Queue: 3 jobs
Job 1
Amino acid sequence: MKSGTPVQINEISENCVLKEEILKALKEQNRFLSGQELCEKFQVSRTAIWKVINQLKEEGYEIESVSRKGYRLKSHGDLMNQFELDSTLNGHWAGKTVKYFEVTDSTNTQVKRYAEEGAPHGFLAVAEEQTAGKGRRGREWFSPKGGNLYFSLLLRPNMPPEHASALTLVMALSVVQAMRKIGCHDASIKWPNDIVLNGKKVCGILTEMSAEMDFIHYVVIGVGINVGVEQFQDDIKAMAISLSEATGKGIRRVDLLAVIMERFEENYALYESTEDFSKLKETYEQYLLNKDVAVKVLEPKGEYIGIARGINSQGELLVEKEDGRVVQVYAGEVSVRGVYGYV
Ligand code: BTN
């Protein structure tokens, strides 16, 4: 190794720290900070400050520079990067360790790789773009860059595998609560875990588990939310919608993600306390689009129509058949649709 190398590495990491500190100061103060003030605060030269400000501008931060006044952060828009995630996610464990990918194959696959290497409960992977996004039943999840949210959360539940089946509903509930909190008041759940706005799908959830007969190694819950991208592939166009299209508002993805993690921590604690969905069932049903609505249940053996009456403490859908019998529908085996279409 050349003798100069360690110095360069130090310089790079010092520059990153300085950049993060300056960004933090600009965010916290929300006023003009003069070059002099920044130099004194961080004990660096004016040139160093100027270089960092330019780097931040190149990364997409809108920074106003006015002579004799200094620098002010005008907006941090919808930027998603490692720093924004680290500084915005403030939960106790969900997303406490977060890894950002500009592009990756699939965040579920990434989290599995990290899980095998010993990543902790609550580890989160977030991507701007996925090249091999996975949907349920082996389908592809269209994951273009430019404004959507793709993330996967690692869980290491201390419970038997059969008790983990409704964890995917815990995430659906958390997503719908977060969407409503940021102003998407019509967001609802289509059982078990699609989130729907204006009758169209805005979010899908894919849960995968690595387990033995009586022991869970880990669970990965992957969530794809159409936030800002309004173009869809032809085959999903008719049933997909984005949050921006539905609300006409710009949504900051990291803020939405932070609220989802916050809600998930609360909901997970309730789930964990009973190892089932009993404490969450009532809240979930408030958002359940297909409650007391006619549904078509598509089973491998055939299909039937009934009225969805809610869920049980395992998260199974209770469907009342024409003869009055109520059957429990397990999510793994079937699809549930509206009688005339997707919902
Ligand atoms: C569905 O089919 O409705 C489930 C879609 C799940 C997509 C998300 S995007 C983030 C995570 N990574 C993946 O590859 N899939 C999930």
Job 2
Amino acid sequence: MFRFLPEQASAHAPEMDWLHHLITDISVFFIVAICGAMIYFAIRYRKRDSGHHETPQIKGSHLLEIIWTVVPTLICIYIAYYGVAIYRDMVNPGEKPNMVNVTARQWKWDFQYENGKTTTNEAVIPVGEPVKFILTSTDVLHSFFVPTMRVKKDAIPNRYTYVSFTPVKTGTYPIFCTEYCGKDHSYMLASLKVVSRGEYDQWLADRSEELAALKMPPAELGRKIWEGKGACKSCHSLDGSRLVGPSWLKLFGRTEKDTQGNEFVVDENYIKESIIEPNKHVVAGYAPNLMPSYAGQLDDREINGVIAFIRTLDGTGASAPAAEAAAPAAPAIDLAKATPVERGKHLYETKLCITCHSIDGSKIVGPSFKGIYGAQHKFADGSTAVVDDAYIKQSILQPTAKVVEGYAPVMPPFQGQLDDAQIADITAFIKSLK
Ligand code: CUA
């Protein structure tokens, strides 16, 4: 009963699920037995007439008391024993696990491998070999959660914590942050790729991306850092719009006031200071203590890159394409000339559908759009329907009316935010994803 757990992709997952299901079943059994008895007695011994009935006084029963003390104690000891035994297997990765350092920060995951290779929001590990993730955080509490591997552990600033497991299946699995850690907590996703040993060796040895970063012109490197390593884009826009921090558009060379009213010019020194000591001179109108220090995380070359990139964002035509290219999630398209599918794709990327619905079949928060059109779906209320134009429209306007089974009713309604033509474009785009 109640078998809702995701795919089992680690060696300890079957044991853990077995214990989890055992506890669930025991709990369900007692809930039904106790509530059932309560309901039965309430009906059986209800007041039937106006007469006065006194309940007989029943004195204690040693036999009953022994049974209901000993039986639950034995059940608890049994569960505790297996809980400890499975936990011990989980935390002991065995001989020579592959070590991966994980650094959580608002709002991304950095991974570092034994040969020095680093990645952001993507971990790759070989199948069938124990792996040990060594977690820490640079700012607040985060939590490293890989449901398919049945591991979850907090990443804590100034401390190391560990998770270990042995993946038994190749594939790509989602990694979530499961500790509310600020504005972009829900976007703090990464993927775990489990590959064969050969593929892993090849991947690990391939440092071409890092080499390319070394050879990159500074402004290009800066853009890459804005997007990836620095996660600057969570708080600093490139188009003038206000996010958590000031937009980088036309920022360089501007005269600003800090919270004490001192004027300063945004130049190389100010930008570097803001990266290393973000709270020293906060621009008036913005809150302090939000930006983490990047001291020790970005080297001088990278800081120079960020400065060079900000310098290019002067709002002139020459830099505009760079700004657009910097946000590949939302490329500018000529909407007048675009086909409905292209317009739908643009809406998918800009109206945030992309954060919860993949187009490659992988499950994020909501169902993937790939192949969903025309498919038969079962809903949380038990009914079924084929996904057609009417269903898509309803799901956009009133998302919680019919939620596909297995998904949480968390989508906000887009009523008033998308018109009929836009909904038709999105539908066309979904239809195109066979
Ligand atoms: Cu990091 Cu939530």
Job 3
Amino acid sequence: MTRDELLAILWENADTYISGAQLARRLSVSRTAVWKQIEQLRGEGYLIESVTNKGYRLSSRSDVLSAAGIERYLEHPNIRVQVRRSVSSTITVLKEQAEAGAPEGTALVAEEQTKGRGRMGRSFYSPPGTGVYLSLLLRPDTAAAEAVALTACAAVAVAESVESLSGHPAQIKWINDVLMDGKKICGILTEASVDFESGMLHYAVVGIGINVLIPPGGFPPELQDRAGAVFGTNGGPALRCRMAAAVLDLLMGYYERLGEKTYYEGYKQRSVVLGRPILLLTPGHDPVPAQALDIDRDFALVVRLADGTIRHVNSGEVSIRPGGPDF
Ligand code: BTN
């Protein structure tokens, strides 16, 4: 019996009792083995009641990430989910799996990352119990230059998921941050392996980190101004499992029609930079003031510089200049 097989049966029967004898029969183990495994799941945070003559009952309010818990909500047939309690970084680990031949659709979700990575060599704060840190392996038949579309469709998938689960609108800050009420609730980092001769992708790993809840004690001081969470401090039934499943389903759906760019309008409509005075930030260069005019269909940011030049920017980051002059 694996822990996941037991969990899968408990999830199938969430909020109803299933007897120890039935579990033991279905899993071909003794009732004692079932009980030991149940104790272990409780230790991990699953809310499992037990009542004499009735058996065990998993509460659907348990908000622990598990493969069975996510698969319960997942609709897409070609996603295989693995969940780890703690990893260095889901991107780093999934890239190793990709190099070893893991198939497209392999998803790695973690409760905690000890070396979560962000853009531009930054770290990504990934405490346990409150976030969803996931990476999805894709093997697109596209040129590396089109990889930016993966990040863009991931941003829309996250925005739509958090909106449908919370009922609050989300915004997108070019190119890859998802915000709620002006605070960053999600960061996205896409890394790829490229065939230098053809310029085509071997594979891409899309890494998504969502702050679902505010961590106990709040965000660290250096993040407090900028970081937010989709919900407050209290979660809900299987909230993070539903979040992971919704994001993976939507992302896979968009990915399968990547070239149609059905996510383009959803991306543009949620943009917080359009029409605003901004600073273009490129490592090693001074910030460049500009006006954000548009996002083209390749997800480049169309800007007007102070001398009136129009530029399509496809790398770097931007910050909004509050009250800065328009030009
Ligand atoms: C950013 O905002 O700079 C991007 C953050 C990306 C974080 C996610 S969490 C899952 C995946 N694993 C990582 O180490 N990073 C990405």
